[in-house]
Design brief:
Radius of gyration: 12 Å
Number of strands: 4
Strand content: 25-35%
Largest sheet: 4 strands, mixed
Helix content: 40-55%
Structural class: alpha+beta
Shape: globular
Number of helices: 3
Strand order of the largest sheet: 2-1-3-4
């Protein structure tokens, strides 16, 4: 089923570009994955909704959260968990 990855970032964060790159690379490689980059301070309402207290914060399918520039394997593990819970 469809997967949505939101990556919350701030402009000065040195770790955010890596997290965004991984999310978007997954989206480019798989038509079932959509990735979004959200600038946390400009979109305060979304940041509050997803309880963003540090960046990069990655939210997968509204249910799984990762903090920091995680390896791509962590993205894939979280995606697999969302697929299991949706079945």
């Amino acid at each position: 089923s469809k997967v949505n990855i939101k990556v919350f970032v701030t402009p000065g964060c040195p770790h955010c570009p890596g997290a965004v790159s991984k999310a978007h690379r997954l989206a480019m490689e798989n038509d079932w994955i959509d990735a979004e980059m959200i600038e946390a301070t400009s979109f305060g309402e979304l940041s509050n909704k997803y309880r963003v207290s540090s960046v990069p914060k990655i939210v997968i399918n509204e249910t799984y959260e990762l903090i920091g520039n995680q390896p791509v394997e962590s993205f894939l593990e979280a995606i697999a968990k969302t697929q299991t819970t949706q079945s």
